[in-house]
Design goal:
homodimer; alpha+beta; Mth169, Chain: A; 3 strands; 33% helix; 38% strand; cytoplasm (chains A, B); ATP-binding (chains A, B); ATP binding (chains A, B)
Chain lengths: 84, 84
């Protein structure tokens, strides 16, 4: 069994209106030190797979096919073996 | 200048309908090994602050006041000093 932590972020240069709105809220709350805010997704997957290499390839495929819009988003992930 | 990576996840026991929908999509695509999917947020903040301790306290406050709904969400963050 493996657990994957997938981090999905907007590519550099892609506008992030949600991040902009959060930044403006932080500024209005007095957090004047806030320079930039970018908001992405953090996806935790639990996979019933025995081999690290298989898990790695399957997560890569899931990202490319469903989890990530690779036109505007980047991703990276970590895998760790877990026992449930 | 500090960069903070904030990871916001649903608390254990809180239902995650978005994660459930993604899991069902993965299963329908043939990824039968998918056991659980939980979806959270990944927030990158850039802060114009000089001291590590100040940055840490400010990010904690931002999380408690705006970024995280602490009733249903947990968070953790990492800080690193950056030069722009």
């Amino acid at each position: 069994m493996f657990k994957a932590n997938v981090y999905v972020t907007l590519r550099t240069g892609v506008l992030d209106p949600q991040g902009k709105a959060v930044r403006e809220s932080l500024l209005s709350l007095g957090y004047d030190e806030t320079q930039e805010v970018r908001i992405g997704k953090f996806i935790e997957l639990t996979l019933d797979v025995d081999k690290y290499e298989v898990a790695k390839e399957r997560v890569r495929e899931m990202c490319e096919k469903l989890l990530v819009n690779t036109v505007i988003e980047d991703y990276r992930f970590e895998l760790k073996e877990v026992t449930l």
